[in-house]
Amino acid sequence: xxxxxxxxxxxxxxxxxxxxxxxxxxxxxxxxxxxxxxxxxxxxxxxxxxxxxxxxxxxxxxxxxxxxxxxxxxxxxxxxxxxxxxxxxxxxxxxxxxxxxxxxxxxxxxxxxxxxxxxxxxxxxxxxxxxxxxxxxxxxxxxxxxxxxxxxxxxxxxxxxxxxxxxxxxxxxxxxxxxxxxxxxxxxxxxxxxxxxxxxxxxxxxxxxxxxxxxxxxxxxxxxxxxxxxxxxxxxxxxxxxxxxxxxxxxxxxxxxxxxxxxxxxxxxxxxxxxxxxxxxxxxxxxxxxxxxxxxxxxxxxxxxxxxxxxxxxxxxxxxxxxxxxxxxxxxxxxxxxxxxxxxxxxxxxxxxxxxxxxxxxxxxxxxxxxxxxxxxxxxxxxxxxxxxxxxxxxxxxxxxxxxxxxxxxxxxxxxxxxxxxxxxxxxxxxxxxxxxx
Length: 438
Description:
The protein is mainly alpha-helical. Helices cover 87% and strands 0% of the residues. It has 13 helices and no strands. Helix 7 (229-258) packs parallel to helix 12. Keywords: Cell membrane, Membrane, Transmembrane, Transmembrane helix. InterPro entries: Poly_Biosynth_Transport.
């Protein structure tokens, strides 16, 4: 009887993983396509230097909004998944605290970018004309952070269907609005349209989050939310520092490149290469979204066999996707470059480095969630710090090679981090005490 129960338990995990992956994939397609479509249109309508302008500005938006929300969002997803069934009152306070902190951090960063836009553009980016675009995107930082943390709460509740529905609506809004804004008013119109899409998304995601909490008998509350402060010190602060070391590191490295001769052109080339990486990592990152709450539950139950099954499913899925994508790029990669009006003979080496680096990343992504899901947040921060240092130092040493130098540095950093994640996962699993599922 017990083996049958274990089999049914693992079958339930497989079902949750499969349906979560399906819904998350459907919901993320349009959102992930927006930067790609936007980059193609800019390269055709305005040229590669304008792609660089868009890349630096959009990268600032993404870095600031993720800095505001990533740490708190990871804390919310992990701990709401672990407490929603056993302690719904705590889950409600965690949700309230997450929204409160992410909203406040987003507002502070938005005001800072607006206030210091001239200084950032002149003294850091060495491109004074970017100050205007930084001011335009500054309000979007707060809106994006607010949306991201609410989406994280829905993921913690494992409401993948609701998340997919919201992502689909958001993606359609952006795909329609951003190209229209670009066509009518150039880069200014594109960023304004993106902001309107974000704002519309806020009116959809907030009711969905509250309805999801009610469906799980969780009362969303700001009152007493700060009593969950230990969750901040144990999870959100190290995750916040990890996001400070991760997403803004990309911005730092592009800043190094943009200060070189033909800097905006090289950043534009790098940004297009990263769009290729985003295509390859599109499905693997969705796998990770499904993985985090499931792994968190497995670690909370000390179920080592379940954790191994979930990791095996996710890593296997990602490696199959990566192998297929690498094969497609080997056959049709020239067409991708021509889509952006690039020269395959000149630029192909850069893109092949990105393709193989992204294949490595796809296998590493599930292992990268082990520190978060197992509660070893400070160890995860240390690992991310090593990646950040490797990436920045490598970019600095290879800065005279422009886009090629930054993609090489990125590939080396991810390769080393994958080895560290593998060793850490083996260490954590060896120290767990197996508790049988009955």
